[in-house]
Automatic annotation (TrEMBL):
SUPFAM superfamilies according to UniProt: FAD-dependent thiol oxidase, Thioredoxin-like
Domain of life, source organism: Eukaryota
Cited function: Catalyzes the oxidation of sulfhydryl groups in peptide and protein thiols to disulfides with the reduction of oxygen to hydrogen peroxide.
ERV/ALR sulfhydryl oxidase domain span: 423-532
Transmembrane region(s): 666-683
The protein's name: Sulfhydryl oxidase
Entry EC number(s): 1.8.3.2
Compositionally biased intervals (Low complexity): 1-23, 609-620
Catalytic activities: 2 R'C(R)SH + O2 = R'C(R)S-S(R)CR' + H2O2
Keyword Oxidoreductase listed: yes
A Pfam short name: QSOX_Trx1
Gene of this entry: QSOX2
Amino acid sequence: MAAARTAASAARSPGAPAAAAAARTRRPPSARPARLPPLLVLLAAAAGPGAGGAARLYRAGEDAVWVLDSGSVRGATANSSAAWLVQFYSSWCGHCIGYAPTWRALAADVRDWAAAIRVAALDCAEEKNQEVCRAYDIHFYPTFRYFKAFTKDFTTGENFKGPDRELQTVRRTMINFLQNHTDGNRPPACPSLDPIRPSDILSLIDKRGDRYVAVLLEDDSSYVGREVILDLIPYESIEVRRALGSDTAFLQKLGVPSLPSCYLIYPNGSHGPVTVGKPLRSFFSSYLRSLPGVRKKPGSLPGRPSREESSEAVVWRDFDRSKLYTADLESGLHHLLRVELAAHRSLAGAELKTLKDFITVLAKLFPGRPPVRKLLEMLQEWLASLPLDRIPYDAVLDLVNNKMRISGIFLTNHIKWVGCQGSRPELRGYSCSLWKLFHTLTVGAGTHPKALDGTGLEDDPQAVLQTIRRYVHVFFGCKECGEHFEEMAKESIDSVKTPDQAILWLWKKHNLVNSRLAGHPSEDPKFPKVPWPSPDLCPACHEEIKGLGTWNEGQVLLFLKQHYGRDNLVDTHSADLGGPGEGAPAPGEKQEGSQAPPEQPPADHGAESLRPPSLLPPRARLSERSQPGLDLLLRSRAGGEGRRGAEAAAAFLGMGFSSLDMSLCVVLYVASSLFLMVMYFFFRVRSKRWKVKHHHPSV
């Protein structure tokens, strides 16, 4: 999982001199508010817009990659004269950032293949692309999909099935994909990639023409011939074919000494093997392109999107590294609920159980503003009340988006990073906020041990960690990152026996992840991944024993409880809470600008115990007015779920009503049904009598 906090690298244990020396020599700046130099701010602004702006890892008009978005992907891939290989990625995904140079190199390497197959990318992190990524059923990043030429009906494409994602492997898989086209839907610009027979070569030799004919002779397992054929697509006055060199006698007759080789037939009728420096694709292609009269066809390359101009500049917000920002947590929660989870059309089984447990942990331990906590509590209570074995996620989105305009609930609908800002738009951001969120949850469980009572997660020191682990494994978009996290969990999570150990376990693993990613393309040069907390943030956390740097884990624990506690959370740059029905606090609630609810005592930051104020207000209940509407939303979203969904929704509708209310509802329902049945039979009998009365038999 790509970690993007200001700090963090390998977790050090006593006796790690190299890491200690690195920490001393690579000491980060002091804990004053973080500011970027003016030049770096200008460079960041030039790099592209913030969340929701233009694609960041790939630049239209600069890279050979075709940059697609929600407005172009369907038009590009539907009924296209060329096949497509599209990478659906997320600009915050560390693995996607690391893979971007390979994808750019691949696109440049096969640039001349564009009339037959094109290499494209679409950023699912952009808000305008989120719906289309859901339509294409994209759950993890990066996801690679092939789209055949001349596909008229909508399709989500074919998944890439290569053994790895190295450039050569992907290039060869592209060739296999082209060969899987039938004659009826093969791109018209793509020559035949099948081998010709020896007799065909002899007929080509005997026939004069106005062009060169190059025959690549190779083994059956070789891709050189097919690659050279595709390389020469945009060139005129030359035709390239391939043949298998299984007939040794025929090769000797042609004078071909080894494989692969190129046998060239000139326009004047002369012919013979050609000599190149090395029997490699690049040498063959370069030689054939340089032949007299061989040149690129006019307009051989299809039109490409023009370079996108930045529509907005990156606004840098000064922040204090010693503080935790509400804006980061709420922006991360917005992305988690509305984008990452929304990639799943419906949830069932283990996925649904993971969602319910994660929302429960959030509802009980999230330290944000009251309207956000109230939304999470309402969502948790709503999910717990529905004994469905499958729910459409759109129903969850309806509540998150407050379609019923319930007063007093709120969640920002846009992203504004503060402590999680990066020096470039694709750096830090969501992965940073997710780490912060996870730390606040473990700290909340450690400092408020009764918060999970009655949820089924109580009395288990690993409950929060295991819930986080399952969420990352099932839902986190960066699949490779999730696999790394799962490996760490399998290795040592069972050693956690107390809530304090859970806090320290996550801290150690976060440092370990950042140590692995130090120097990775996803590392922000402005915020290097160093051991965290740094000495200037927590001097007491760092010690030396016999000259070796080490952590004082007792002091680290106190620091983590203070840093991720409610008292350290500031609302600077947070989104406005909105008006009535749009997340405004309910009557009597405080529209907060303070750090904690006024009824809570301040935390005691003594050396022995850190006790932040209660993380939860009194339990919020779904109002009677909102229950039927939420139920209708669920039933409209789950219309195809069948009888079980309707029965479960009916059970949910009964929440908050007395037995007398429900009895009256049943009586009225039965009475209405009987009345309708009586009226039906009455009019049916009357209709029959009318037909008999007015019936005149023909004479």
